[in-house]
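For this section, I looked closely at the sequence of one protein beside the tokens encoding its backbone, which the following lines show:
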Amino acid sequence: MRRVLSLFLPRWPIDRRFAVEQTNKAFVLVTSIAGRRVITAVTVAAATEGITPGMTLAEARTFKPDLGVDEADVVGDAESLGRLALWCERFSPFVAPCGNDGLFLDVTGCAHLFGGEAGLAAQAVARLNRQGIECRATIADNAETAWALSRFGGRKITVVPGGGARAALADLPVAALRIEPQAVSLLTRFGLHRIAELYAMPRAALIARCGEGVGLALDRALGVLAEPLSPLPPASLRWTRRSFAEPIATPEDIAAATRELVETLCRRFAEEDIGARKLTLALHRIDGRVEQATIGTARPERDPRHLWRLFEERLPTLDPGLGIEDMVLTAGRVESLGATQLGFRGATEKDEIDLAVLVDHLTNRLGPRAVARPVPYESHVPERAVRYGSAIGQRKSAWHSDRLRPVRLLHRPEPIDVTAPVPDDPPLFFRWRRLIHRIRRADGPERIEAEWWRAAEEPRDYYRVEDEAGERFWVYRAGLYRPGASPRWFMHGMFG
């Protein structure tokens, strides 16, 4: 039988902002709606003053003139709720955000790990309360029943026995069906205030008067229709975890646990003949925050000594806070890696591995974009014919140019002033960067057409020219000759 846990966070925008440093002051979050400042969340102290979400700020200040105000951050609230969902994966691998104030957890088959369903719900609520997050929890056969009781049931923890949805929902208001406010108002006008009053009504008459949405919501709440949940993307199956009976916080303990996780994961890699290209270490703190460190490797790697050295450089940047209760090491990317001899190596293989180690250390310190190598790319336009890729990887290229190209290519062509006898002839001399270069030899033109899908570009006529000092340049004229229009010339590279 499926069992779903609904966690309702009634003051999530407030709690996530003041989770560490609680405030007893009357404080509200506001946003602008149709030119009015409307309250979206309130603290407990503000609620006791009669201030509620949906009230305008001007009206609230008639209750509390010295009311504390801050701007609502809807995007930040959603991102924080996503991180909290990841944190809740300790209770179930199937976690789905529910709106902007709750979470769904499919706890089918998980409750026995926490002493039963009541123990699981109590532990989830207690851990969230310890972080300063107010929470109510309900476990039921389906998401709709759990959602309704967590928000309208009035109890901190509720466990609905299997098949008990009908009785549990009976005394709840019709708004607990998660229907539109217009439908709630219509039902109230008909004198239908509680969900139990809908049970005896003919379904066809209910749908005809109140719309199909009410009937569908009732069927979902009673378990007649199943409501699909959209969980967070599953984490990689290649991971290992270490939990602690007492939180750890010292650098020595964190380093020892990290080394143990790396060795455990590398043993699994050897069994599967794979190596890691990306590893992420997550430290789950007791205050709910998750500190992460990610490393990448230039080639598949499963040598625990090398991977540990990469993590050793990153551990000082992680803040353990008041303590760490869980550590998880995840392989975000792996590739095939056959059997390797970790002792004696031939000279060629040793050079390759030493280069990979050097690239890994530089990438770990400078960032993945700081260590790269140019690789050919299929494009006739010179500045697009090269892109930067992994510093170590496939050496062969599918694109080979038989054209003579300069040793140094400018990142962007620079305009030059050119004197030419006729528009289609090479220049006699040109001015570039305040210096005049008189041409002694020239070769060209080589026409490179614009890429047809880029409408704003023009064809180019390139010339290889040599000045009186022996310097050789690659210049081009942009566009086709047009009577009455001055040709535009550019410097693009030097031949060394």
In short: The chain has 14 helices and 20 strands. Confidence is low (pLDDT under 50) at residues 341-350.
